[in-house]
Write a structure and sequence with these properties.
The complex is a heterodimer of chains A (210) and B (443). Chain A is of the alpha/beta class and 210 residues long. Chain A has 2 domains: 80 residues, Methyltransferase, Methionine Synthase (B12-binding Domains), Chain A, domain 1, CATH 1.10.1240; 118 residues, Rossmann fold, CATH 3.40.50. In chain A, 57% of the residues lie in helices and 14% in strands. In chain A, strand 1, helix 6 and strand 2 form a beta-alpha-beta unit. In chain A, helix 1 runs antiparallel to helix 2, helix 3 packs antiparallel against helix 4 and helix 6 packs parallel to helix 10. Chain A is globular and about 50 Å long. The mean pLDDT of chain A is 91. Chain B has 443 residues and is mainly α. Chain B has 2 domains: 214 residues, Heme oxygenase-like (Heme Oxygenase, Chain A, Up-down Bundle), CATH 1.20.910.10; 197 residues, no CATH class. Chain B is globular, with a radius of gyration of 26 Å. Chain B starts with a helix and ends in a 5-residue tail after the last helix. Chains A and B meet through helix 4, strand 2 and helix 8 of A and helix 7 and helix 14 of B.
Chain lengths: 210, 443
């Protein structure tokens, strides 16, 4: 678990764009043998959720939001040697953002949680047109497709994407998540068979373990 | 000061700008030899090709200039200057031609959109590579200054009207290029950082080559532009969001945006032309919501109203935009009235949320009192200021924190408004807060 004081210090450094202080705090947590998954959920995810709220409330600028995201992405890559060392379980996942969705860090963190649990994971990234996604799924043959959505205004694009994917791959299990769902969309998502809402990285972790 | 040791260390290696020049010289020659430029030099380039070029570049610069200012990379921040922005010049040129040339070519829109998407992706995945694009876009100022007289002659342009982009930096073009070159070389001394920037510059040239090939000779259009093309035509800086499928709906949305823009002069005073472009593109997006079920329309508009209120646009502005949109859309396509009325219902929801804190009658009293206090002339110039204040108070009570502060900070700037106006703003705000304080909202 991440201590509240450490979280507050980290968030403050993140909002100030202080990359080295963020790095030092993460290093200290790693030295204290924090579970990587706790680091993802208790530090990276929660701080970015807070950054997103501050942007929505116009408390911080879009530039500050981008800096915070970039710092977090840098810190994630520091952890890759540990993440990719997990023993493989033979399952595959494809993680993507839908077309028009440029916020990719949430999807990246989801992909890392899959990797930590031994899945082979392809993270396709931001703004993926549905045709490209269909081709990639056809090529890879994943057990799960994960779709990440940050902006609620893209909800219809997500639902259309799922409909297209479903028409090509009837059995594919689809996970959806992201900050957009705070504003709604769950009722419609739940009407689509084989689609599951994953509210947090912690729940994703539980789902994969079980 | 550069030491001798530094000189020795640097001398064997080529600096970044030299490498960029060597790597891209072939691309530059190929671009300049395209028919677009040869016909321009012969003064036979059709005006429509030139206007399409300005539109394509407005899209590219719109995206590039909004991405580079948020790029998280030290050298990018040190090299970029706001004075490098070309979008304002391009928009000025487009406004000059607008009465005659508004439509955009779908294929060129798509190509400009592709290049914009590449820029967005680079900012996410490798921000320093944006400097490769910047090298190409800044380098264009050199060629532009050579071609500007051809543009003026070919299209009989008075002074610099319609060719502000081609004459950016004016007499300082070579000096600005030297400054840019120095900044690039001095900032990016690590040779390992050069390769991605050069690759990006080559990519930028390749993308531009595709666009200039398409610009002349201009192919006949194959269908209308897609949604992202149409939105970029309205607002080059807008993201890719849904657009109405029917041109009549787009026109109706733009009329609704204009109505609200005039209804609240605050919009123009505070947010200027850029705000106007976002108002237009946002209203087009709002029109697409009519295709959703009522619950989704309500949620989407509630989401947007919070975003806007927190940015100094109280929810009453969106409420009026939705009402205007519903009217305009129903006027052009009455058969789809039931769809469009969902927007009116969403507006009614926002209105009810506002009026549960400050009822309509009390709101009207405050507005009339405010207008009497500031006098007829100011009341006309700052129409509906009191309504904005009342709405901001209601938004705040509805949990959108900071709405009042975002509005009032601007409305109480002493160098902008008279004492009379400031006093009226403060009094209205205080009265509205008193009413809301004593109001128990109906559930």
């Amino acid at each position: 678990m991440v201590d509240e004081k450490v979280f507050a210090l980290y968030l403050e450094a993140l909002l100030k764009g202080n990359r080295s202080q963020c790095g030092q705090l993460v290093d200290r947590l790693l030295e204290a043998d924090i579970d990587i998954k706790d680091l993802y959920t208790g530090l990276f995810q929660d701080s970015l959720y807070r950054v997103g709220e501050l942007w929505e409330n116009n408390t911080i600028s879009v530039a500050t939001e981008h800096v915070a995201t970039a710092i977090t992405e840098g810190l994630l890559s520091r952890l890759y040697p540990r993440i990719f060392a997990a023993e493989h379980c033979g399952k595959k996942a494809v993680i993507s953002c839908v077309a028009n969705e440029w916020h990719q860090i949430g999807g990246k963190m989801v992909a890392d949680i899959f990797e930590l649990n031994g899945w082979d994971t392809d993270f396709i990234g931001a703004n993926t047109p549905v045709d490209d996604l269909v081709r990639h799924i056809d090529l890879v043959g994943p057990d799960v497709l994960g779709l990440s959505l940050s902006l609620y205004s893209n909800m219809e694009v997500l639902l259309q994407t799922i409909a297209t994917i479903r028409s090509h791959f009837h059995e594919l299990h689809i996970f959806c998540g992201g900050q957009a769902f705070r504003w709604g969309g769950l009722e419609k998502l739940r009407q689509i068979t084989g689609t599951e809402y994953i509210p947090s990285l912690h729940v994703l972790e539980q789902t994969l373990v079980n | 000061m550069v030491s001798a040791k530094d000189d020795i260390r640097r001398s064997p290696a080529k600096q970044l700008m030299e490498k960029l020049q060597e790597a891209t010289i072939g691309c530059h020659k190929r671009l300049e030899s395209l028919p677009y430029f040869s016909t321009l030099i012969e003064h036979t380039l059709p005006l429509t090709c030139y206007v399409h070029q300005l539109q394509a570049l407005a899209i590219i610069h719109g995206v590039f200039e909004s991405e580079i200012i948020v790029a998280e990379h030290g050298p990018v921040r040190r090299i970029w200057r706001d004075s490098m922005k070309k979008l304002p010049l391009l928009l000025e040129d487009l406004a000059f031609f607008r009465p005659r040339h508004r439509a955009m070519h779908s294929h060129i829109l798509d190509l400009a959109g592709d290049m914009s998407d590449r820029i967005r992706r680079l900012r996410l995945e490798h921000p320093p590579a944006l400097l490769g694009y910047l090298y190409v876009l800044e380098g264009s100022t050199l060629g532009n200054s050579m071609h500007q007289p051809d543009i003026s002659t070919t299209f009989h342009l008075p002074q610099l009207h319609g060719c502000r982009y081609y004459s950016s930096y004016r007499q300082q073009v070579h000096e600005r290029w030297r400054d840019f070159s120095r900044a690039m070389n001095d900032t990016l001394t690590d040779e390992d950082s050069h390769a991605p920037i050069i690759t990006a510059a080559l990519e930028a040239f390749a993308e531009l080559e595709k666009i200039y090939q398409a610009l002349y000779p201009l192919r006949q259009q194959n269908g209308a532009p897609n949604a992202s093309g149409r939105i970029r035509q309205i607002n080059p800086e807008a993201g890719n969001h849904p657009m109405p499928g029917d041109e009549r709906e787009t026109a109706a949305a733009l009329r609704a945006s204009t109505r609200v823009w005039h209804e609240f002069p605050y919009y123009a005073h505070r947010f200027g032309e850029r705000g106007r472009r976002f108002s237009d593109s946002d209203t087009c997006w709002l029109a697409t919501l009519s295709q959703l079920d009522q619950e989704s329309v309500n949620r989407q508009t509630a989401w947007l109203s919070r975003l806007l209120a927190a940015r100094g646009m109280p929810s009453v502005m969106l409420e009026h935009a939705l009402d205007a949109l519903c009217e305009e859309l129903t006027g052009v396509l009455p058969a789809a009235r039931s769809s469009y009325e969902k927007l009116g219902t969403a507006a009614a929801g926002l209105r009810a949320a506002r009026q549960k804190w400050i009822p309509q009658e009390r709101c009207r009293e405050l507005c009339e009192k405010f207008d009497r206090q500031i006098g007829t002339t100011l009341a006309e110039e700052h129409k509906k200021t009191a309504l904005l204040l009342v709405s901001a108070v209601a938004d705040e009570y509805n949990g959108i924190k900071g709405t009042v502060a975002r509005l009032v900070t601007w409305m109480t700037e002493k160098n902008r408004f008279s004492d009379l106006f400031l006093t009226a703003v403060k009094k209205t705000l205080s009265d509205a807060e008193n009413i809301a304080d004593h109001k128990s909202p109906k559930e």
